[in-house]
Amino acid sequence: MPLSASQVVTAYRVGVFPMAESREGRLFWLSPDPRAILPIEEFHVPRRLAQTVKAGKFRVTTDEAFERVIDGCARPDTWISPEVRAAYVELHRRGIAHSVEAWKGDQLAGGLYGVHLGGAFMAESKFHAARDASKVGLVALVAHLRRIGAVLCDVQFVTPHLARFGVREISRDEYLRRLSAALDLACRWGPPGPLPP
Length: 197
Known about the structure:
Blueprint: H1 5-12, E1 17-20, E2 27-30, E3 35-37, H2 47-55, E4 59-62, H3 66-73, H4 82-93, E5 97-104, E6 107-117, E7 120-128, H5 133-148, E8 152-156, H6 160-163, E9 168-170, H7 172-183, E10 193-194
Parallel strand pairs: 7-8
Antiparallel strand pairs: 1-2, 3-8, 3-9, 4-5, 4-10, 5-6, 6-7
């Protein structure tokens, strides 16, 4: 049975997310314990990246190139199978999945995408074709989440890259408590277009 957008939403609401073992591999449903979150109010921007953001090297937008972003994330060794891609594109059409894009001129230099439900954002993947592009996108994402009143940013697993931004692990039980509270909030993402850094 193909993965559906509705299945994905139902899963996220109970702390579960899909991941394929490879582009052509089997699909798994995961609920890690511990779970990694990016504390929105304690987000740390490294000094060099803050200088890059301030210099305005990238123009940042949201939802202007969702399919290009997910395709940029779907490298040959990725977990983003065609089935997964189709489900998230449908979620985007429904206004549930969103992208943040970093541009150099008219060229897409990097970006990230994830799922927004209530006051929670579940970040899924990122890519860059130019140095720091996805990081600048992440800075803009967190600023946007603050503006709309979101309280939870799920990144699933800690990586050395994410640890630099203050990502930390919490227990599954604590994650589910935070998720439940976040889902009760009514945070509107907003229309496609430019995002301030």
